[in-house]
Amino acid sequence: MEPATTRHLRPDEIAQIGAICDAVGNDPHRMLDILLSVQDECRWIAPDAMQLIADRTGLSRIAVEGVASFYAFLSQTPKGRVTIRLCDDIIDRFAGMPQVVAAFETALGIKVGETTPDGAISLDYTACIGMCDQAPAAMVNDVVLTKLTPDRGAEIVAALQAGQRPEDLISDHFANLTPHDRATRQVENNIRHAGAVLLGPGSDRAGLENALTMTPDQIIGQIEASGLRGCGGAGFPTGRKWRIAANAEADRRIIICNADEGEPGTFKDRVLLTERPHLLIEGMTIAARAVGAREGILYLRGEYVYLRALIEETLEDRRNRGLLGQGIQGQDGFDFDIRLQMGAGAYICGEEGALISSCEGLPGEPKTRPPFPAVQGYLGLPTVVNNVETFCNAARVLDQGAQWFFDMGTEQSHGTKLFSVSGDCLNPGIYELPYGLSVRDLLVMAGAEDAAAVAVGGASGTMIARDQFDRRFGFDDLSTGGAVVVFNGQRNILEIVEYYMSFFVHESCGYCTPCRVGNVFLQKAIGKFRQGLANPEDIDYLKDLSGTIIETSRCGLGTTSPNPILSTLENFPLVYAAMVKPSQDRIRASFDIQSAIDSARHLAKRRSTIFDEDFSK
Amino acid sequence: MTGFSFTIDGVAVTAEDGETIMEAADAAGIYIPRLCDHEGLRHQGSCRVCTVKAGGRSVSACTQPAQAGQVVENETPHITKLRRDLVEMLFHEGNHLCPICEASGNCELQAMAYRLDMTAPTKFPYLEPCRPLDASHPDIALDTNRCITCGRCIRASQEIDGKGVFGYVGRGIHRRVAVNGADLADTDAAITDFAISKDVCPVGCIIRKGIGFATPIGEREFDSGLIGHKIEEKKRD
């Protein structure tokens, strides 16, 4: 039999792939949609499939391969009809994922990374899927399963092997459920505190109605006056971004919603997408009105594919109600529509340039700046990229007024913030609270009084210790995209740091040298600390290498990836000091002479006269 | 076009609107080290060896537009150290065994190491890749273990040859240059391509068969001077 990787396409597969390309007009900018569909239908992206897609879209095969090999959810080897993706986040590990993994491996008779011999089921790890408040979690094709146990793992395998479909694991009458019910049966919202702006009661059309009474300039003025800043983490003033795009010379402008929430420990956008989808689309529509855009893209991370039907339903509903499409609210010339773009497993696509590349059908690589996206973004057009929470806030600002929003929060951070709290606490979930809140206040609310370390902002944020729990959330002090990951005193700080570094190694796009290579070196160095093989000078090495990566990396991934190391070196110095040993005899502890000479032993077919004491025997 | 001036390490340099810091520096005879950038090809900004401080911020000189009045730092001890770290990273990422490499003496990576004083033993671990050699093509061989993923061959083939023989595949540390087909013989690469010429690959990854060691060691490009000396000579003229 021909090996699978050189097998030629069957006629029905050729027809199928052709139809997939036709469905998007053979448009190379829709490459990610094409490849995701081919992956779904054929379970892999075969070499012949890449050639066929290249021919259809007018690209070279290597260009298609560049995209296919970039995204974690696309595979260049055949996968099973069902792919189980186990969430490999540190919170999932601490919540018992290793036992769940063992149960899956035993029940399936394969290891993670393998496919059952009958080609039915593949088992893989995947990076944080945004379910930290209900870990351990997994995706089974497009279905999400949370709070897994070893027993549940065995049940799932038995059900799948008995011919059940992934959605049958959620409900016997899944197809009859509304998209919202399907989403909430899979994933809990865990809204622990609803604030005044986003999760409390409020209209999801008043903002747009008010916006329609204003000029675009007045809308932007309102957003500027509200003090609203980007909620994804970087905090760029939203009004300024909109104004730059509005003023840029162009006859087409684009609004993109960044729903590629990938920071480990962040899941607030998931809850907004589930509970406030209309508010989000309203915010995008207001932005379109403000900057003069007719086209929008909602980029939804591949891990949230279970929300696709809900978003599509929301868009269709708004089109039917005259809130989206041609002549919105009866206003002649106000045309705006949104297409949903699915991601395919790449944290880097949360970076706005990478997200635009991905929307263009390219590998998710950040773009060279300048030009900035507000001037030249998607297909070179002025593009506003905002986070889900930012658009929702914008809609509420237009509803309740700029002053109302401005009066909440602190001097530099106005309004409320959604905090995604997970880890060692009694009440993990979403807390909407005004900026300026202290870490301690939030920990009390979440039932995390024995917290010893908190990762504020997730993997790329800051790891703080008890003596800093009086610090306050906001751009004035502890800026965050909203992740608050709690660790108690039993957790191994270096294990957490090593996980975060392995995450960045996995998620670096590889474009620039320092991020591609430097993070691998950091990960290896932390490994040495964990094994007790580090020297005192390795602490300086970590700081020095981190500095180079931060100063020379091309985008935010590389300029923040050393943060777990730098913030723990500063706030938990004893953790490192306890693991270092001065080297003896000027030989590094990490140098193992026995393994170093082993290949020489094999080549020479004898033992060492110096290093093998029993040589003479 | 309007001209303006800015400074590099205190030296006044003139630039035209839209010029990058590196383009203006080259014209003024100031060398900013670079590996992924190549005259005539689209600027990529990936190796980061051309990192400079512009107004205190780190930027890649090959992509950053020059600005009037801007204060650019180029050859400070700190920046040279950053660049040396980057060059060491590239050495450690691949297998760069200068004494047995045909490119030795013509190799920009090696020459950059000399220029940046990479003389002490390095502190990074070796990643020791083990990628198969592609010798399928009658005239060309490809040893990607020596590749520094600068992508100059990719751009040269696309932009100059109009072919697209090469491209990037993979992500992160697995990102590498690959060919548009099962192997190089399966592509339309030709020994006459600009992408294959000795100007394009800065290291010993793209090998032209049958002409190895035609120029003896001692008479090679960087035997006569440090990398960048040709640009710096312009200043003296």
Automatic annotation (TrEMBL), chain A:
Please list the GO terms describing molecular function: 4 iron, 4 sulfur cluster binding; DNA binding; FMN binding; hydrogen dehydrogenase activity; metal ion binding; NADH dehydrogenase (ubiquinone) activity
Family label? Belongs to the complex I 51 kDa subunit family.
Q: Which cofactor does it need?
A: FMN; [4Fe-4S] cluster
Keywords linked to the UniProt accession:
4Fe-4S, Homeobox, Iron, Iron-sulfur, Metal-binding, Oxidoreductase
User: What gene is this protein translated from?
Assistant: hoxF
The source's superkingdom equals Bacteria
- EC number, UniProt record: 1.12.1.2
- NADH-ubiquinone oxidoreductase 51kDa subunit iron-sulphur binding domain residues are 494-539
> What is the native source organism of this protein?
Thalassovita gelatinovora (Thalassobius gelatinovorus)
Known InterPro entries for this protein? NADH-UbQ_OxRdtase_51kDa_CS (IPR001949), Nuo51_FMN-bd (IPR011538), Nuo51_FMN-bd_sf (IPR037225), NuoE_dom (IPR042128), NuoE_N (IPR041921), Nuop51_4Fe4S-bd (IPR019575), Nuop51_4Fe4S-bd_sf (IPR037207), Thioredoxin-like_sf (IPR036249)
Which EC class does it fall in?
oxidoreductase
In Swiss-Prot or TrEMBL terms, this protein is called NAD-reducing hydrogenase HoxS subunit alpha
Show the coiled coil region(s): none
Database matches in PANTHER family: NADH-QUINONE OXIDOREDUCTASE SUBUNIT F
Automatic annotation (TrEMBL), chain B:
Q: Which UniProt keywords apply?
A: 2Fe-2S, 4Fe-4S, Homeobox, Iron, Iron-sulfur, Membrane, Metal-binding, NAD, Oxidoreductase, Translocase
**Cellular compartments annotated:** Membrane
InterPro entries registered for this protein in UniProt? 2Fe-2S_ferredoxin-like_sf, 2Fe-2S_ferredoxin-type, NAD-red_Hydgase_HoxS_gsu, NADH_UbQ_OxRdtase_75kDa_su_CS, NADH_UbQ_OxRdtase_ferredoxin, NADH_UbQ_OxRdtase_Gsu_4Fe4S-bd
The domain of life is Bacteria
TM region positions: none
Among Gene3D superfamilies, the record links this protein to: 3.10.20.740, 3.30.70.20
Q: The 2Fe-2S ferredoxin-type domain covers which part of the protein?
A: 2-78
Instruction: List the cofactors.
Output: [4Fe-4S] cluster; [2Fe-2S] cluster
Task: Name all 4Fe-4S His(Cys)3-ligated-type domain ranges.
Answer: 78-117
Kindly report, in one word, the top-level EC class recorded for this enzyme.
oxidoreductase
SUPFAM superfamilies in the record, alphabetically? 2Fe-2S ferredoxin-like (SSF54292), 4Fe-4S ferredoxins (SSF54862)
What organism is the protein native to? Thalassovita gelatinovora
Tell me its EC number(s), please: 1.12.1.2
Family statement: Belongs to the complex I 75 kDa subunit family.
Q: Which GO terms describe its cellular component?
A: membrane
UniProt-listed GO biological process terms: ATP synthesis coupled electron transport
- Keyword Translocase found: yes
What is the primary gene name for this protein? hoxU
Molecular-function GO term, any one: 4 iron, 4 sulfur cluster binding
Instruction: List the protein's name.
Output: NAD-reducing hydrogenase HoxS subunit gamma
Q: Name one Pfam family in it.
A: Fer2_4
